[in-house]
Fold:
Amino acid sequence: LLEMKHYDDVTRSCDALLAHEKKSAWLYELRGLARAGLENFPGAIDDLTQAIAIQPDRALLYARRGGLYLVSDAPKLARPDFEEATRIDALDGDALVGRGAARVRLGEHREAVADAEKAITLADPTAQRLYQAARIYARAAAVARAEVRKKGHDTVILVDKYQDRGTG
Structure:
C-alpha cells in the first residue's frame, strides 16, 4: 500500500494494529512514512520518535527523522539525528549527505562539503547521493560567497572550488 501511495490506508492499518498489538518500531516507522507521504510532517516525526524509542540502534530511523526535520526547515533539529545515524553507521551515505545538508543550511559550509565528499567516496555513490552532494556544493558556494567581504581571497577560491566540484 505504501508503494502504491495509499497513505491513508496505511495510516488506518497501522492505527488499528497499534491499538491492538504490542507497540512495534516497524509499525511506527511505516505509519511515519505514510504520514510523510501525506505531508503530515509533525505526525511523521512523532512516529519516528516512537520508533527510535523502541529501537534506538537503527541508523535509518535517525536519518529518516533528520530528513523530516530538514523538510520542516529545522536544520538545528536535523543535525543531531544525522550525527547519531553516522555514529551508529559511519558509512551511511544518506546520513552523511543529510548531515551535510543540515550543516550547509546552518552556514557551516566547510563541514557540509566534507560530509558530501565522504558520502560519495565512502558509500555507494548512488544518483540520489550525487544529486544531494551537488546541492550541498551549490549551497556551500552561496554561503561562502556571502563571506567573501569578511574573509577575502581564500573564500573566493572556495566558492570556485565548490562550484566546480558541484557541477563536475
In short: The longest helix spans residues 127-151. The mean pLDDT is 90.
